[in-house]
Amino acid sequence: MEHKTNFVNKATNPRKKFNFLSHVFFSWQIPLIIKTWKQSGQHESYFNLDEHDSEQLGNRLEFNWKKEGSQKKFSFKRALIKTFGHELLTCNTLFLLADVAFTLAQPMLIKLLLDELAAKQTDKVLFYVLGLLGVPILRFMSFHLFCLTITSLGLKLRIACSTLIYRKILTMRKTALEKISLGNIVNLLSNDTERFDNILLIPHIWLTPIKLIAATLYLGLNFDYSALTGIGLLVILLISQSFVYKNIASRRMNVAKKTDQRIRWMNDFINGIQAIKMYTWEKLFEKFIFEARESELKEISKANYLRCCNNSFRLYLAKVSVYLCIMALVLVTKIPLTSSYIFALIAIYEILRLSTGELLLVGVIQLAEIGISVNRIETFLLNDIAKSETLFSKQRNKLLGVYVQGLIVKRDTKIILEDVNFEALSNQLVALVGAAGAGKSTFLETLLKETEIYKGIVDLNGSVSYAPQEPWIFSSSVKQNIIFCEEFDEDRYRQVIKICGLEHDLALLSHGDNTLVGENGVMLSGGQKARISLARAVYRNADIYLLDDPLSAVDVYVAKQIFEQFCQKCRKSLFRG
């Protein structure tokens, strides 16, 4: 097919040109912002990043997903970890070291500064003040750099999963694809893959406990053990997250199921809108959709109530923790309160509140939602795993042609084809003749692996070109519909036009073979669509041609012309259902 013009700038992305400091301060974005503003956001102002290329990311994830076939059980989570786990581990390790250091540095500097002032010594005051000013700056710089890196990783996950879903749709059998609703596919690509954009706070699920352990060691070594009282509250909160995780995951699954059902019903109603209008069923179906939406909103409300309760802890966590520490200090240890003790506790518990009370809680919710989305994507990818793939043999020592032995094809419980034996070699013309519904089209679809074999062996040696019984025309020119994905050959193209009887039709069109057809183009008759579909199959230089009743929509004269010029003169293997 003709490639569409790529409006994205192919120049090197400015992010790759700048040094480490430019990445830390995000100064590499300034020229990009200025250029985009001057060009009013035109496509030429955007740049490509090879690391976000959909083909590359899709290939990496697809490779690891296919390797799961050698395991006892397919696991999409394991495939994602193998593909992007090293990037996540590297990013988390570097940020963990910096975050723990900055978490402990600020309360330590506060305690040292106040102790220095209490002792009326000013030798190191300036050093401590500069440290208190610099530590938050360095901490937030590292945090923002981490946010950019982890968000970029989430985008890679979304691109890779969307690519894998798209490729799965293209390779699924026709019978399997009919069992999946359009709403389910739309929900996967719009809602489920979008959850990977919320990966930002998930690393705090394992970063926070490590930070909590480091803070506990610091408090135990530098303060009295009464300072650990507030840590108990944080630990209880961490344990409660397992309950929150399970409930949110359950709610998310219920919401996804009801959303799929509502979208599927809406799609069916829209397809049958003419009948609904004719019988004046609008109010009935409006009530039906309203009840489905109400049921969906109830599940969403339950999940939101749980999120609100989970988020309410962050408002009081730090204050309650410090209060418990002070009460333990006064009532148990009888140690006098000092400003260095109080302000250092406030500083460290405020940092732990941000990690435990906000980042961790939101991260748990996001992980629950992503876990459900990953399970739903895995369920979709496991559809139509080729159970009968071994029945499609590839014996290269045989001549070009089709070899079928003891073929049995079932659809649900009904047998469509039973004990079929068939053999056809190159340069043979074979016609399958039978009554309507006898299984002629099913046989051709079985050769194309579009139906699942119950029993038997199918061996298809050579490249294949197929013309379906119902012609498929996409929105483009007539020429492009015929050439499709093949290289353009002028002589072969003109010969195919003549063989398929399209010369007269192209002469009647306003722009000849450059006339736009399809949904947004010129309306074609059934015979014209059938001949264009046949021309597409004939134009492809294949070893085997499978033609499913291509002449049914044309008149007797044209059918005779096509048969004599194509079927009787062509030296390829031909099959007509």
Q: How would you describe this protein?
A:
By secondary structure, the protein is of the alpha/beta class. Helices cover 61% and strands 9% of the residues. The chain has 18 helices and ten strands. It has helices at residues 20-25, 29-38, 54-67, 76-118, 125-171, 174-177, 182-192, 204-222, 229-271, 273-278, 282-333, 339-381, 440-447, 478-483, 490-499, 503-508, 526-539, 556-567, and strands at 392-393, 401-411, 414-425, 429-431, 453-461, 464-467, 476-477, 516-517, 544-547, 573-576. A four-stranded mixed sheet has the order 1-5-2-3, covered by helices on one side. Strand 2 and strand 3 form a beta hairpin. It is elongated. It starts with 19 loop residues before the first helix and ends with a strand. The model is unreliable at 1-8 and 571-577 (pLDDT under 50).
Write the layout of secondary structure elements.
Blueprint lengths: L19 H6 L3 H10 L15 H14 L8 H43 L6 H47 L2 H4 L4 H11 L11 H19 L6 H43 L1 H6 L3 H52 L5 H43 L10 E2 L7 E11 L2 E12 L3 E3 L8 H8 L5 E9 L2 E4 L8 E2 H6 L6 H10 L3 H6 L7 E2 L8 H14 L4 E4 L8 H12 L5 E4 L1
Parallel strand pairs: 1-5, 4-10, 6-9, 9-10
Antiparallel strand pairs: 2-3, 2-5, 7-8
Helix pairs in contact: 3-4, 3-5, 4-5, 4-8, 4-12, 7-9, 8-12, 9-11, 9-12, 11-12
Summarize the structure.
Helices cover 61% and strands 9% of the residues. With 577 residues, the chain is an alpha/beta fold.
